[in-house]
Amino acid sequence: MLSSHEHFDVSTTLIPSEAVAEPADYPEEQQLRPGALATFRSITVDLDSLLANVSRAQQRCLELGLDPLNDADNDKDLDSSEADLQAKEQETQRQAHLQDLEAREQALAERSRDFERRESEMHARLQELRKLESALEDKEKEVPGLLSPGSCSTRPSSAATKASSRLSALTRPSSAETKEPPPHFQNAQSQALALLSAEVQDLKQQLEEQARTARILESQRQKEKEDYIEFIKALGESSATPFLGSKMNLDSADILGAGKYSYVFRCEDKKSKDKVVVKVTSARWTDSCAHEWAISSRLGKCPRIIRCHKLFLHREERREVERLVARGFENGDLTGKRPALFPAMWFGLYLEHADGGSLQALMERGPVGVGSAAAMAQQVAAALAFMHKKHMTHNDVKPRNVLFCKHAEQAGVLVAKLADLGSALHSVDRARDCDLHSYMVWCAALQRSFSACEASPNLEERQGLVDKFLQAQPKQASAEHQKIWRALASSLRGVWQGTLSMQDVELTECFQACQVRVPEKCQSRRLQCF
Fold this sequence. Notes:
It is a single chain. This protein is α+β, with helices and mostly antiparallel strands. Among the domains are: 10-64, no CATH class; 240-351, Phosphorylase Kinase, domain 1 (2-Layer Sandwich), CATH 3.30.200.20; 359-524, Orthogonal Bundle (Transferase(Phosphotransferase), domain 1), CATH 1.10.510.10. The chain is built from 15 helices and eight strands. The strands form two sheets. Strands 1-2-3-5-4 form a five-stranded antiparallel β-sheet, with helices on both faces. A three-stranded antiparallel β-sheet has the order 6-7-8. A hairpin with a 6-residue loop joins strand 6 and strand 7.
């Protein structure tokens, strides 16, 4: 292939110079006849045109980087160039399509935001109109003759007429004083009230339509839920086995508690001999069991949250769960009304076993201690911060849902873990988690009952709780413990004021070296007080 600086002489390369000599150059005996001479000149003209075309083709080949004497290579290069052009064209079309999709997505998002903004404005406008309507009704009662906001008539109301008659009888006003408002004023007032009334009716109609749509969607959701439950029941009836009796040693099992929809007990795995916690739920409340399992699965592993290991179906052939519940009521572990009927099938969860009891049990045994309260606050805050990063909230932080595990290497030290994800939600509204966490820490440090704390005090009441916390600082405590106490008060104030997050509490420097320690009287009983 020729380089771009080489020149190619078509006349010398393709056709010898003697091939285009004029007829006069031949000897006289070889002179052509006049008819042949004209034909020869015509051929010469065509040849010149052909040579010009070849020269242009040569120039084009040089521009494309092709070799004019190598047709095979030229064909390959041309095929490659065409393939490259097609690929570039396809890539251009794909990019254009992607840009179009992005533009449509942005347009849809903008329309959605616009719809939400208009809906918010509509609700605000409706509230203003309702306030105006109420104000006009009050005004009608005070000033006789003023129009009712819900009517376009110029006739005063009956209450206004009676008030006007009584006023006339008492004061006997002159005819000038009883003159009615000018007609143009009444017309303008009537038109304004008519417009407001029409706008109110339109807004009411839109709200009724939205409420009707919401009711339809809720009804559909309820039917889908019922269908889902029936499907799960049928699946369980056909697939459930006597799982608990075959996998667990239930002779030594003990009831840990009962929730709104489930029972929780501790037993021993026959194969591994490990203690496990089992939570069983009837088929009627399958959605709560599925919700807890789904939340736990999406959260993944967190060292500060009780893990859900697996799911199972259990068929009650020997009434294992029923006997465990009856034993719990007999021993006083369960209180309230005994269930009259038990389901024939249970949905169950394998949960991580916490062998150190709960914060509720620890609080009932006596003072938690400054260092233990700070360590518990830091560890539970770490669990909540992990959930908040996953855009989830717990919504049920309380001493009964804070469980302890024994430290693997240090005797007498406990590790706090957050349990019970049944109330967790996919949400970024973290206010309730922060409030409950702070109240729990406040109660644990001051030996107060958690149920005695208000759910949502105002800012002034919160400041009062912080002041009480500071006033209760132990006077005989060491300088280090007093520093930790002040840090706890600062974290309570910051969380309640909204200036600190759970991650900020987790990373508080003063809490890092603190540990939850087993009280001495509990150590002597080998944690049986838990």
